[in-house]
Amino acid sequence: MDATKLKDVQGPLKQRYREDPASAVVTLKADGELDGTGVACRVQTATVLAEAGLHPATGGDGTQLCSGDMLLEALVACAGVTLRAVATSMGLEVSGTVHAEGDLDFRGTLGVDKQAPVGFRDIRLSFALDTSADQDQVASLIKLTERYCVVLQTIKGNPATEVSVSTGA
Known about the structure:
By secondary structure, the chain is of the alpha+beta class.
């Protein structure tokens, strides 16, 4: 896709969202099925059924996906797609790789130390880019990618989150 095609596709959407801001609010959803025989949760993605389980550092055997890895994978996917969209809009040819890593202290997750955090304490996102763009263009590309990457902004923003439960008797 080139910049013209991207603008042609996104232009009407942007105009609609300017005229009707409420139409820009979309509720995304994910569903999981709790595995009744093991410590797992099956999540239906757009194309496959993914099964998440315990990370080996918490007693898993490594045969199932780790939700922490999945979070980092979502960050890489979002950052990569966002970077490509921004590069396309800027008319830049860019290829390369995206990498994310994060530090977890499993003492928190396992309840070993109540002072240890549960969740990532540090996340690092990096890009190794092949491009003929100059330093200023790359700086703008990364700045805009950070600004518009939904997953990155969600992680940084700490959104209000609510948890609810219902039981079938």
